[in-house]
Amino acid sequence: MTGKQTETGKIVLGWWRQSLRPESETGAVRGFRARLRRAHGLLEIVSEPQFIALHDDLAAAWKKRPDPVALATLAHLLASVKKNAPQRIAQIFGMGDPPPLSQLRFQHLIRTDALPELGEDLRRALPMIDYACNVAALADDFLNWNEQTRARWCFDYFGKASPETPAAAPEMEETE
User: Fold this and answer.
1) What's the pLDDT at 5?
2) For residue 128, what is the DSSP state?
3) Does 7-157 carry CATH code 1.10.520.40?
């Protein structure tokens, strides 16, 4: 993903804003977010109507059914994100001296293959960056976790433009 949001990112960001972080938060929203954060299994997440709505929206956009394990893991992760930021998560992890996420811990993160483990590692790292990241970019990267995504994260972490991204690519829109 370069400087623009994909359809997947837009769908997930819209769901996050509506289901997890609406402008006028109600007890039902807080309860749903808490249930997602405390969930210990796939069924606890998949049994939520808001999750099914996200699944259906992505299925319609993709013309195929999303992997429920990957999507439930993403929903579990997004329940802990408090603010949508313009920067991608790996960029935020590498900002500053010293960076919020050590290079060793970052290397462990990008070597992770299993999405449930990746989701848990990212959830544990969110407090280090004030629970903020670009929700759309995180969704795209998480649902397309592969070697290309990992390589881009490395360039992002070190504050460099990845070979696939022009240096003058526009930043993603800031929301929230």
Assistant:
1) 72
2) G
3) yes
